[in-house]
Task: inverse folding
């Protein structure tokens, strides 16, 4: 009977060891923000879990103390208890040698105890806590809280001793245990998110979140469009010609160039023209409706200009230096497109940066930013690695790669894609065809 009690005690110690292991991994795995949410919805257990998670070092010490005591107790009672169960078997087999009985009993009992300790007391509870940390942490919080206060004097001494060792080693004491992720790590988490239920992101959600993270690292040069693509009004044109430009294009804002076409005098908003006509005014001089336009550097962080747009600045800015012809422009649509994807309206339903072709290739303007090509192909183009610093457009990438002006029909190879120059105008590349490496046919005409 006594042997059975020792066996039951040994199994209890194995389970107790598993409890402390599960509690340790359960509370460590949970994020602080998730614990706060749980505390608001699960009553007493959630409140206790919040207290436990708020003093993580102290309660991890409690877990370690519990694991150590359970393991020591298991070693003390486990081997004799299981060894004694083998004695009747030796008697039936007629084995009377004490050395043989003791040796075999020790090996068998040690193996059984080690197996139970590793599987039931360590691996299983650890895996359980990693898979369902919320449930495990909630279940363990209250007993662990009671154990902590019951063993508080010992835990206090252990914590103080551990902190002293850290100080001797030149390290600080307890710090924050919340994990802080880099942008790349967050994007990887989004790409690999395959959870089920409420926490699963949809494709669109992952797409928008990943693009928003990328947006924080962008400069205006990644998103701007070249100034020669802007639809503008001109001082040297008649009122009728300028208004015809407005009617044909239906944008809300138009830069207004001087007679030489070099300097932008301001921006004209379509609403101002509309309200003028509605009030019965004759529009005879567009300069009366000019609004100021901001000129910014191409190196300006995209977040900065987005912040200015949000606070009431005109949703149109020029890129370049004041007093000189601008090199590009950027609008709120460009910024929003970088964060949430291409935005179309009822007037531009078919407008797209890259036009997909039946053979899996894409055709687009050479003036498009490299960023748009990266997003199209789902890759990162490392300009520094290729020795192509300060390159901002696809056309610039081709010229920097060759060190010369490409000819129409010429094919330029990159590690993950090829580009064919489809159309040029003198030294300018107008149109290109992008051939992803995985989609490329082996015998495709080099000058297609």
Result:
């Amino acid at each position: 009977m006594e042997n059975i009690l020792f066996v039951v005690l040994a199994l209890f110690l194995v389970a107790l060891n598993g409890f402390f292991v599960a509690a340790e991994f359960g509370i460590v795995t949970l994020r602080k923000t998730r614990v706060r949410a749980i505390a608001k919805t699960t009553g007493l257990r959630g409140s206790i879990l919040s207290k436990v998670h708020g003093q993580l070092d102290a309660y991890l010490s409690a877990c370690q103390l519990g694991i150590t005591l359970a393991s020591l107790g298991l070693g003390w009672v486990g081997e004799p208890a299981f060894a004694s169960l083998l004695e009747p078997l030796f008697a039936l087999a007629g084995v009377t040698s004490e050395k043989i009985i003791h040796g075999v009993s020790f090996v068998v009992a040690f193996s059984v105890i080690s197996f139970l300790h590793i599987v039931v007391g360590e691996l299983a509870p650890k895996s359980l806590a990693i898979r369902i940390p919320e449930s495990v942490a909630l279940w363990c919080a209250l007993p662990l809280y009671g154990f902590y206060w019951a063993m508080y004097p010992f835990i206090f001494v252990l914590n103080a001793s551990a902190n002293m060792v850290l100080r001797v080693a030149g390290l600080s004491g307890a710090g924050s245990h919340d994990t802080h992720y880099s942008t790349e790590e967050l994007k990887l988490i989004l790409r690999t998110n395959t959870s089920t239920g409420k926490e699963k992101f949809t494709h669109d959600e992952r797409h928008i979140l990943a693009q928003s993270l990328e947006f924080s690292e962008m400069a205006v040069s990644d998103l701007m469009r070249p100034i020669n693509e802007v639809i503008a009004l001109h001082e040297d044109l008649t009122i009728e010609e300028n208004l015809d430009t407005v009617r044909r294009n239906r944008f809300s804002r138009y830069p207004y160039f001087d007679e030489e076409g070099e300097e932008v005098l301001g921006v004209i908003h379509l609403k101002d023209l509309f309200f003028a006509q509605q009030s019965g005014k004759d529009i005879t001089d567009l300069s009366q409706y000019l609004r100021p336009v901001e000129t910014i550097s191409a190196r300006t962080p995209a977040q900065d200009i987005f912040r200015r747009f949000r606070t009431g600045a005109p949703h149109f800015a020029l890129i370049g230096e004041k007093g000189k012809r601008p090199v590009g422009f950027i609008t709120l649509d460009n910024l929003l497109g970088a964060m949430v994807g291409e935005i179309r309206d009822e007037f531009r339903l078919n407008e797209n940066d890259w036009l997909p072709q039946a053979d899996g290739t894409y055709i687009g303007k050479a003036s498009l930013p490299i960023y748009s090509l990266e997003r199209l192909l789902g890759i990162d183009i490392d300009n520094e690695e290729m020795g192509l610093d300060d390159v901002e457009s696809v056309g610039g990438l081709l010229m920097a790669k060759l060190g010369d002006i490409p000819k129409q029909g010429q094919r330029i190879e990159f590690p993950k894609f090829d580009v064919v120059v489809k159309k040029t105008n003198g030294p300018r590349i107008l149109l290109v065809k992008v051939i992803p490496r995985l989609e490329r046919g082996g015998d495709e005409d080099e000058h297609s």
About this structure: The longest helix spans residues 98-131. The chain has four domains: 2-168, 183-215, 220-340, 354-436. The two ends are 90 Å apart (CA to CA). The chain is about 55% helix and 10% strand.
